[in-house]
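Q: Convert this sequence to structure tokens.
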Amino acid sequence: MNIIKVKNPQEGVEVCKKLLYEKVSRNSVLFLSGGSTPKTLYQSLAQERKLKAGAVALIDERFGEKLHENSNEKMIRDTGLIQYLLKQNVRFYPVLENKSFEETTKDYDETVRYLFNYFPKSVGILGVGVDGHTAGLPAGMTNDQFSISNKTDLVTSFNDFPAAQKQRITLTFLGLSKLDEIIVLVFGKDKKKALRLMFKPGSVTQIPSRFLTQPKITEKVTLITDQDIK
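A:
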């Protein structure tokens, strides 16, 4: 794992932008996460208007009506990034299309398969929650709840995510493993414990961010953080 220590989130955003400008091109699909951590990054990318990509999609989404108040798509649209990309003829692939929970999950799995097959390179931006979750994969789940035995799905869904928005649709561990480059943003003192959990050996179903430290995955990961890792 390539670990880049920065002084503050602002410096982290600058480092991440530089990496994206180097790694993402018209031959790449870029997968974006929601949440508060990358919002400033997306705003800055929209303002600078330098990012080039073949397509943009989502790592995960909070289920509901299209562009509902808490949707990741709405947050990213509000930064201006999607509008900028569309003007560059870069297609954005949303999760929500006002279909049922099950149909939405199935359709997005097909979309993700198409994107991985069509584009020679894929890059994903991830965060880590204070409880150690990453993407829409919740912490503290059992193997059965995670359907960990399912080795084929690239996208899955959860009805009981431990947050206000309980229905989530997300790339699976298998889906995340298809990414060629993974950039992980972890900022703030409240994430210090999460980082310790991430690097502590143990179950990935209990602490999904541990997936990022697994063999063959960790070599693809760049972690940008303003916290010491001990």
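Residues 2-225 form a domain with the Rossmann fold fold (CATH 3.40.50.1360).
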